[in-house]
Amino acid sequence: MPAAHPHAPTVTVGRASRRLGGVVRAAFAVAVLAVLVLGPAAPASAHAQLTASDPTDGAVLDVAPAQVTLRFSEGVTVQPDGVRVLDRDATRVDGGVAEAQGSVVVAPVDQPLPPGGYVVAWRVVSADGHPVHGAFSFSVGTRTEVSDDVVANAFAGSADGRDELLGAILRAVAYVAILASAGAVWMGAALRRDDEPTPVGRVVTGLSAVGLLAVVLQVPVQASLATGQGLGAIGQEGVLGIALADGVGWSIAISGIGLIALLVTAGLPFRSNVRLLALAGAALAPLGLVVTGHTRTMSPAVVGYLADAAHVAAGAVWIGGLGALLAVVRRRRADDDVAGAARALATFSGWAGAVVAVVVAAGLALTWLEVGSLRALTSTTYGRYLMAKVAVALAVVAGAAWNRFRLVPAIVADADADADAEADEEDEDAALDAARRWRVLQRVVRLEVVGLVVVLGLTAQLANTTPARTSVVPGVQSASAPLGSGTLEVLVDPARPGRNDVHAYLLDSKGRPDDRFDSAEMELAVPAEDVGPLVRTPVRAGPGHFILVGTDLELAGDWTLTVIVKPDRFTEQRATVGFRVG
């Protein structure tokens, strides 16, 4: 072991010792702060989106429906009580036996429904494991308004704002704790010498326990959001299955087993089977973050899972590795092993280059799958969070590059010179410069840790935000315009390039279907591309309802639809609406 210089930076070592616990506490504080600030910005970030319903929102029906049908953008699960139909007095008129078949949910209603206004409130769990909810209204006979209180109290036990914020906090804490503990074990094992303590120390044990608790506590929150019946809903029959559906159960099991493995090996001699179990747990825990969420709906799925797994693993090595590096450097410098601390720093610096390359490659693949276009990146909530995440990550990379290419070589050179020099030949000014470089290095590494925690907070928020590629897909488009003394209402489904169904509803001055028309004509055009008008003849589907089935709308962009009807032989009425295909 090299001799200590009388001017060796023992003050810096003391400061590092006192601040290590502060770094961990600050990391969690930043994670919680990030969620508190960002979480309310998108309180109901849907993943499965309601693309169509029968009845449609705001429809006025002559005949009461026998059932309510909901169609979503992806497969969903629903509890029998997950679709509620209420009249204007908040009395339920549904059968309480909703069923899901893929992306379609059907809920029967009582017969016959008397004339009046009705609200449909629904709650489902999307294929990526996120609860989604919403409501719409329809009328039978004449248009009848329903109080907003009926909608608000449709699921009387719900506390969505609280549960969404609590879920966001738990996800952020779980992300930080899992990745930091796993990465600390991996990198701690790589940097550790045989005579040094186990990397599964008190900090890793604490992080593992906090991560396990955060993972488990997400289950009752998931159940509450899925049912709208509060945190106690987890005890009801069938609710646990819904809360653990769509990969959530697998995610909890995989991460939980990995974290338990770390807790079991805490403080034990890091060799033989203990070492294997700790490393296996550290490898397993982050993989639980991959098997649920957006990855389940990516296409191609193989690319999505591989990219997400690589992204998570690299992130764990980065953030946990920085913590392990700080611990190793502090310990070796406290033992006057400056050369050993420098070697650990050089080893981690080599790993960091590979980690950054993996993060960039995997991040680009995930961005391509989840965003897909510049418009989606710049115009969606998901895109804005992603740009913020990238900006913070770039700042962290800049700090890491400064360390790698400026400070690390200088510190390693200082350590080599110190090891080769005799004590009475050492230059005091050089020793002071070396101490200053160590202080700067440790300061930059701490800032990197804080920056990476902010990145993880943003990642947790992204996990609960509709992917940008999905957000920019319009789904069902609706538009309306005056037509004579009444109104024209138009629905275009799915409003994507290709075959679409176009529904035209003709309503009289009282909002009822206008049954005077036996036929209609439609003209479609894209003015910006000088396309059209394309004349089409729709099919009469009922009083005041005409459908153009499977018509080709191949061009993405702004379309116009003109509906032409004749209330009598000598009069022609027309109305034009605009809609977007994209």
CA distance, first residue to last residue = 68 Å
Main beta sheet strand tally, sense and closure: 5 strands, mixed
Question: Helical percent range?
Answer: 40-55%
Strand content: 15-25%
**Which structural category fits the helices and strands?**
alpha+beta
Q: Looking at the structure, what is the overall shape? A: elongated
Mean pLDDT level: 78
Radius of gyration: 30 Å
Question: How many DSSP-defined strands?
Answer: 18
In total, the number of domains comes to 3
Tally of contiguous helical segments: 13
Low-confidence spans: 1-46
Structure description:
This protein is of the alpha+beta class and 582 residues long. The protein has three domains: 10-44 and 161-471, no CATH class; 50-127 and 129-154, Immunoglobulin-like, CATH 2.60.40; 477-581, Immunoglobulin-like (Sandwich). It has 13 helices and 18 strands. Strands 2, 4, 5, 8 and 9 form a five-stranded mixed beta sheet that branches. A five-stranded antiparallel beta sheet has the order 10-11-12-16-15, with no helix packed on it. A hairpin with a 4-residue loop joins strand 8 and strand 9 (131-140). Helix 3 packs antiparallel against helix 12 (428-462).
